Amino acid sequence: MSDQTGRRGFFKEALSQLIQPVAEFLDDRIGEHLPVEAPCERVLLRPPGALPEVEFLEKCHRCGNCVKNCPANAIIPLESTRADLNNTPYIDPDAQPCVICDSLACMYVCPSGALQTVYAEDIRMGLAVFNAETCLRTKEIACTYCVDTCPIGDDAIHLTADGIVEVMDAGCTGCGVCQYACPTSPKSIVVEPRMT
Questions:
Q1: Are 128 and 187 in contact (CB under 8 A)?
Q2: Is 1.10.3470 the CATH number for 53-193?
């Protein structure tokens, strides 16, 4: 028996021992007619002007117009095993944030109304959440990438008198530019979609 076959057998047996208790637990729950909760899908950052998620999923045609017309190539179609989510447009700020472009083309090319036309300052895709523990500024490094790159400016994010990053709920669009620009790993500022 080769080393590779031996290792494969070892991991197969180890995995089997790990899975067995979980399988028994699920069998017991189903046998008791108790609900087994499915793992939650991560919450998605939808393009500017998106309706609340339930309405958005009902109205979105999955036509790809917003994807094709985004000048920043920030909007991408989701690949999902869930039929209701598959091919719906979303934004991954780590890959490419929304830049709140002048044309706001995604809203105007949406034929279904899943993306509503709103002014740039009224966009509310998400809210940037700052984590001081990992921020370079708390380690006496004068990093200002998140503040300097924000397309909205001081109304959305600024430094306090103490030099700490402060996100302004009323001004933050949730575009993700700050998250994209943040040099720390994990990111010290992350956009969380607004739950509306």
A1: no
A2: no
